[in-house]
């Protein structure tokens, strides 16, 4: 368990922000030199670009132009009428195409790792390499009847798709319950940069509840692993050493058996699903070493 009162590294606000239309409005932020080589960060479900406030500056300090964006329905990007995996993939392609000519390396966490792997498989011309942080397949959910999934979608529509609100402390309490390994100082920071304060004094996350994918997923576990194994670009797979239910990822031995020819697996002993938040220095060092050797 991490220290609940101290941040491992002080968060640093992005140096720049901008928007693209793809065709949805997508909000991007950047750290590091504007003329540096682009390095794209892909956040997980329920997060946002500013969730990299502790990790991204370490990459930027090495000279990278670190670019992250709010996925549709998250943060400052627009909400969509309907959500789907194909649309998420198109958004990532649009971000890559808005940058100077690539290909560029991607670092994805959780759902963001899967997005990065899928785009790397589909558009190798845009992706130079992938670092996946505990994100290799769509999250494994227990089976549930189709009618339960349909009811969940209807409930979101009946509720006006409004994110659950409360005081800043209540939002932080909820996030702490979902991510017990993260320290409270970090979670309080997330509330400040990823939630909105309303006129009545209450807060709500800048996330559309309908943006979360409802199981079952169209792509099976086996198909996801086969796709990863066929990847043609270099892959650094960073697997959490501490298993957490929120991750829903395969065990290390399964991943090792499905690495692509240019893939390498590192198990992060002592770190959980949010490894880049628990110990950003350690994860950044591994990622930077991997990126430094791409040209060899």
CATH architecture: 3-Layer(aba) Sandwich
Instruction: Work out the number of β strands.
Output: 11
Radius of gyration over all CA atoms, rounded:
18 Å
CATH class: Alpha Beta
Count of the separate structural domains: 1
Largest sheet properties: 8 strands, mixed
Overall structural class, as computed from helix and strand content, comes to alpha/beta
SSE order, one letter for each helix or strand: EEEHEHEHEHEHHEEHEHEHH
The name of the CATH topology is Rossmann fold
Spans with pLDDT under 50 lasting ≥5 residues?
none
Oligomer class: single chain
Name the average pLDDT: 89
Descriptive keywords:
19% strand, Rossmann fold, eight-stranded mixed β-sheet, 10 helices, 296 residues, three-stranded antiparallel β-sheet, alpha/beta
Q: What does this protein look like?
A:
This protein has 296 residues and is of the alpha/beta class. The chain has a single domain (16-141, 210-292), classed as 3-Layer(aba) Sandwich (Rossmann fold). The chain contains ten helices and eleven strands. The strands form two sheets. An eight-stranded mixed sheet has the order 1-2-4-3-5-6-10-11, with helices on both faces. Strands 7-9-8 form a three-stranded antiparallel sheet. Strand 10 (235-240), helix 8 (252-256) and strand 11 (263-268) form a beta-alpha-beta unit. Helix 2 (85-97) packs across helix 3 (111-122) and helix 5 (168-178) crosses helix 6. The radius of gyration is 18 Å and the shape is globular. The model has no long low-confidence stretch (mean pLDDT 89).
